[in-house]
Amino acid sequence: GIQVEQSPPDLILQEGANSTLRCNFSDSVNNLQWFHQNPWGQLINLFYIPSGTKQNGRLSATTVATERYSLLYISSSQTTDSGVYFCAVTIFTGFQKLVFGTGTRLLVSP
Amino acid sequence: KAGVTQTPRYLIKTRGQQVTLSCSPISGHRSVSWYQQTPGQGLQFLFEYFSETQRNKGNFPGRFSGRQFSNSRSEMNVSTLELGDSALYLCASSLEGGVLDNEQFFGPGTRLTVL
User: Fold this and answer.
1) What pairs with residue A109 in β-bridges?
2) How far is CA B15 from the centre of its chain?
3) pLDDT at residue B100, as a whole number
4) Residue B104 near residue B33 (C-beta atoms within 8 A)
5) Cβ-defined contact of B104 to A97 (cutoff 8 Å)
6) What's the per-residue H, E or C state across B61-73?
7) What is the pLDDT of residue A96?
8) When comparing pLDDT for A97 and A42, which is higher?
9) Sign of the alpha-carbon dihedral angle for A106, A101, A46, B2
10) Opening angle at CA A105, ends B38 and A26, nearest 5
11) Which of A40, A99, A100 sits opposite B108 (nearest CB)?
12) CA A53/CA A70 separation, integer angstroms
């Protein structure tokens, strides 16, 4: 099956720093989403980005589907950015299914 | 528009018991998927329902089952609970569940502990 790898697995930042999270996938996908999982377990949609670049405040994402990767940029990080970031790709084989990446655990310290 | 809701939020059961979890999708969404999250295995797909039909199932034993009602609400049942079933169970809804629109929105999850 498809493999979805994220890097780095863990990241510690000082408040105000910038970071780039990467998601590599091993096969063609229909779509890709980025999520932030908060300490209570809620997965919050960040981006729905099958291709191209999107920006939302301090966050932006770029997906290059032909090269099978996506990047999530966090600028001027804040302590509230802490949590786990997942990318998830959508594959469709008669039905849709999300396959999640391994996650990047981010800790932003004051 | 209200988001995806899941009940109960927390549940403690003992081995051998069964449990039923509930998920109400976003209004108008017809597809509901279930996922299990554990520290060891990460997030894994359980099954998806669309128009009251299970369209496919992940690699979980038959103790895991589900159903969907005509109002798109879904329930997941786990029978003969094992310690390894302790997990966060998440459901997600999407508008149609097909190729053209498959952005999925997640509920807050049900945290199940099996003692």
Assistant:
1) A14
2) 20
3) 45
4) yes
5) no
6) CCCEEEEECCCCC
7) 67
8) A42
9) negative
10) 75
11) A40
12) 10
Chain A residues with CB-CB distance to B under 8 A?
30-31, 33, 35, 40-45, 48, 86, 88, 90, 92-100, 102-103
Q: Is B109 on the interface with A (CB under 8 A)?
A: yes
Q: Render pLDDT for A10-48 as a digit per residue (tens, 0 to 9).
A: 999 999 999 999 999 999 888 899 999 988 888 988 999
Q: How is residue A80 written in tokens?
A: 């509230």
Whose tokens are 């780039």? That residue is: A20
List residues bridging with B33 in a β-sheet. B48, B92
Least confident residue range of A76-80, B52-56, B109-113: B52-56
Contact A90, A97 (CB under 8 A): yes
Q: Which pLDDT tens digit goes with each residue over B24-48?
A: 999 999 989 999 999 989 999 898 8
Residue type for A107, please? L
pLDDT of residue A70 exceeding 90:
yes
How far apart CA B88 and CA B2 sit, in angstroms, is 21
Q: Is the pLDDT of residue B99 over 50?
A: no
Which candidate, A99, A79, A55, places its Cα nearest to that of B104? Answer: A99
H runs (alpha helix) in chain A: none
What is the 8-class DSSP label of residue B103?
A: -
Residue B21 host element (H or E): strand B19-24
pLDDT above 60 for B114: yes
Question: Which residue on chain A is closest to B87 by alpha carbon?
Answer: A41
**Nearest CB neighbour to B105, from listed A40, A45, A86:** A45
